[in-house]
Amino acid sequence: MSTITVIDPSTGLPFHELARATEADVDAAVARAVAAQRAWAALAPGARADALRAFARTVEEHVEELARLEVRNSGHPIGSARWEAAHVAQVLNYYAGAPERLLGRQIPVPGGIDVTFHEPYGVVGIIVPWNFPMTIASWGFAPALAAGNAVVLKPAELTPLTALRLGELALAAGLPEGLFQVVVGSGSVVGQRFVSHPDVRKVVFTGSTEVGVDVAAGCARMLKPVTLELGGKSANIVFADADLEKAAAAAPGAVFDNAGQDCCARSRILVQRSVHDRFLELLEPAVSAWRVGDPSREDVDMGPLISASHREGVAAFLDGADIALRGTAPGGDGFWFAPAVVLAQPQDRVARDEIFGPVVAVLPFDDEADAIRLANDSIYGLAGSIWTESLGRAVRVSRAVKSGVLSVNSHSSVRYWTPFGGMKASGLGRELGPDAAEHFTETKNVFFATDA
Ligand code: TAP
Question: Which of 70, 84, 219, 263 is labelled catalytic?
Answer without folding.
Answer: 263
